[in-house]
Amino acid sequence: MAEAPPTTCGDNDKWLLLERRSSSDLPLVVRARDNAQVTEFSRQHSAIAVICEVRRDLVNENGMPMCMDELYRIEDDLVAEASRHAQQAFHTASVTGDGRRVIYFALATGFPAGDLTSATSPTCCVVSLTSDFDFDTYIEFVTPTLLDRQWDGDRQVIGVLQENGDDGDQLRAVDFWFYGSRPQLEALVSHLSSAGFRLNRWLDETGGVILSQDCAAHMQAFADITPFLIATAEELGVTYDGWETFVVAKQSPTLPLKPSVFGKIFGQRKH
Fold it and tell me: How many domains does the chain have?
């Protein structure tokens, strides 16, 4: 019996979370495979979507399903079924929101697509399969942008900080890295100084500069900072290369000092 091919490949294979909006302006969470080999495989063969249309009583007001455990199980069943066949297949993306979860696959020519949905028995949704969508629109939708990639980096840094006990709400000095020619970087320093960024130091050996700003270290803060820095760097022809900061530990509540023995006897000293 031949060993089934894996549903991942490539040295640079990576999954990213992307933030999107539906046609009805509801939030969508996209989990997409970032792999040029798989994208090219999709172009040469075919892409299909398995649509899990969730029961209305299991969808919240933002369009998000409230039965994610079962939807994860369905996805696992689909991926396992795709791996079972001799023909190559790749799970390329999953999109959650607007009352459904859509699971995308790239399938080799001749793959029996109908077998995928026969592998699961849902109770929270109705499952259907389609390939009737514009491929280029789909690729654009699930392909990470520069902003998506930087937000992924932001999440990773913030995750490491939190693992080390960081209080993300506390303001602290955050250092931001930029690279480019000296004249362009000087223009960047001048431009960002009006937005509260200060020069930390020049990186003469690598053609870069570090700017610092006091800010919080959570995703809400970087939801504003990151798009601004990417847009500014693009406008001025430099490269924004992320940030780092130190851990600010969560503070324990300050307790009142216990009175000394003399304080108990003679009372508090009046000043």
Answer: 2
Backbone phi, psi, residue 232, to 5° = -65, -45
* CA 58-16-39 angle, 5° bins: 105
pLDDT in tens, 147-189: 999 999 999 999 999 999 999 999 999 999 999 999 999 999 9
Torsion of CA 62, 67, 69, 75, to 10 degrees: -80
Q: 60 to each of 26, 67, 84, 99, how far by Cα in Å?
A: 11, 10, 35, 8
**Shared domain check, 215 and 134:** no
What's CA 29's distance to the chain center, in Å? Answer: 9
Contact 174, 243 (CB under 8 A): yes
Q: Are residues 32 and 19 in the same domain?
A: yes
Percentage with pLDDT > 70 across the chain: 88
75, 136 contact by CB (below 8 A): no
Same domain, 169 and 212: yes
Q: Does residue 165 sit in the same domain as residue 133?
A: no
Residue 209 · residue 188 · CB < 8 Å: yes
Residue 260, pLDDT above cutoff 60: no
> Which residues, in sequence order, are CB contacts of 36 under 8 Å at separation 6+?
10, 12
* Host H or E run for residue 20: strand 14-21
Tens digit of each residue's pLDDT (9 = 90 or more) over 82-110? 988 878 899 999 999 999 999 999 999 88
Please name the residue ranges forming H helices in the chain: 36-44, 68-84, 114-117, 135-142, 146-163, 182-193, 219-236, 261-266
pLDDT range class, residue 267, cuts 50, 70, 90: very low
Token pair recorded at residue 159: 């995750």
